[in-house]
Design goal:
Strand content: 15-25%
CATH architecture of the largest domain: 3-Layer(aba) Sandwich
Number of strands: 14
CATH topology of the largest domain: Aspartate Aminotransferase, domain 2
Order of helices and strands: HEEHHEHEHEHEHEHEEHHHHEEHEEEH
Oligomer: single chain
Helix content: 40-55%
Radius of gyration: 21 Å
Strand order of the largest sheet: 3-9-8-7-6-4-5
């Protein structure tokens, strides 16, 4: 089979199973409204949970940073791309989340890949929740360590895997809030099982940071858990992009030497690092608390109304509210119907989620208003 035949066959297979992914070009994609071809939709597909991507203080910090530093960093942080803005952002993150050190990465995907690739050896074992993000599972699969997956949020299964004989180290990997189901990991139980086996715990809290916990410190703070390695990303509740790894001083020094994604990538623009600091200031203050309270109220409103829908709702109290509809074609049809009636939603299909669990992945944000939730529920009731 030639290269072209292989490519054509793979695309044809995706198309035939209603699993072909397409990108939609929009003129505005974050916030309460999504705009495409001059038409405005209520936006239920954005991960901008606190509505900070358009916050005036965050925008102003980025603009001022661009005036001071320019629009690019100019290189890797190990060459010339580590500025006073990056240092300030790392120190702010470490202070906020209670870790000795923080390391900035260009994306959450890169951060997860960097940590697992740098830490794991052939004799080691990774035990990961089977619904962990693709960046975690891919890194674990490609690492020299053996990978074992425990049933989703099943700490008894986790403990049984950790008890199996091993002469080296074990790393337990999970998310704080799961990106496709919206449910939370039982982090305290997972940490206990990990400590009993003398392992390390790594938590990716992409969807919890900014939204949960005191001052928005995330899922781990909300459950009073401190993992050995905490990965936080800025493309969701923080309203930006990029990520950070929170860890001990020795682990940070080690990653600075051996994390290739850190060493060989151009660092984020300094202006972005300053915008990050501005966003964290909002998150930690009274306005951030007010936005979290509003979001919690909207989530409660939606779940109360969704209880009467003829669709399966996951056990999620997060901003991610998936409706499981089963077949790919039905998910696509419902998404199309809702868009025709002014609500932008996204159908998520295999291989992103397990076969037979295609869904509408609805996301709520603090930018929404109660009447938006009411309109969405009415449309879902009619479409169901």
């Amino acid at each position: 089979m030639s290269w072209q035949q292989r490519i054509d066959e793979a695309i044809a297979s995706r198309r035939q199973s209603d699993a072909l992914r397409t990108r939609q070009c929009v003129s505005q994609g974050a916030g309460r409204w999504l705009v495409q071809d001059t038409r405005r939709y209520l936006n239920f597909s954005s991960n901008d949970y606190l509505g900070l991507s358009t916050h005036p203080a965050v925008i102003r910090a980025w603009q001022q940073g661009a005036e001071q530093y320019g629009v690019g960093s100019g290189g890797s942080g190990h060459v010339s791309g580590y500025t006073t803005a990056h240092l300030l952002a790392e120190e702010t993150l470490a202070d906020w989340l209670g870790y000795p050190r923080a390391l900035l990465f260009i994306s959450g995907f890169a951060a997860n890949q960097a940590v697992i690739t740098a830490l794991m050896a052939k004799e080691d074992r990774i035990v990961a929740d089977r619904l962990s993000h693709a960046s975690l599972l891919e890194a674990a699969s490609l690492s020299p360590a053996q990978l074992r997956r425990f049933a989703h949020n099943d700490t008894a299964h986790l403990a049984s895997l950790l008890e199996k004989p091993l002469s080296a180290e074990q790393l337990v990997v999970t998310e704080g809030v799961f990106s496709m189901d919206g449910d939370s990991a039982p982090l305290a139980d997972i940490l206990r099982a990990t400590r009993k086996a003398n392992g390390w715990l790594m938590v990716d809290d992409a969807h919890g940071i900014g939204v949960w916990g005191d001052e928005g410190r995330g899922s781990c703070d909300a459950q009073q858990v401190k993992p050995d390695i905490l990965v936080v990303t800025f493309g969701k509740g923080v309203g930006l992009s990029g990520a950070a790894v929170l860890c001990s001083a020795s682990v940070a020094d080690y990653l600075s030497q051996f994390a290739r994604h850190l060493i060989y990538s151009t660092s984020m623009p300094p202006a972005q690092a300053l915008a990050l600091c501005a966003s964290l200031k909002v998150i930690r203050g009274e306005e951030g608390m007010a936005r979290r309270e509003k979001l919690a109220s909207l989530i409660s409103h939606f779940r109360q109304g969704a209880a009467s829908l003829r669709m399966q709702v996951t056990a999620s109290n997060s901003a991610i509210q998936p409706l499981i509809v089963g077949e790919n074609s039905r998910a696509l049809g419902l998404a199309s119907t809702l868009r025709e009636r002014g609500c932008w939603v996204t159908a998520i299909r295999p291989p992103t989620v397990p076969s037979g669990t295609a869904r509408l992945r609805l996301t709520l944000t603090a930018a929404h208003e109660p009447e938006d939730i009411h309109q969405l529920l009415e449309l879902l009731h009619d479409a169901g």
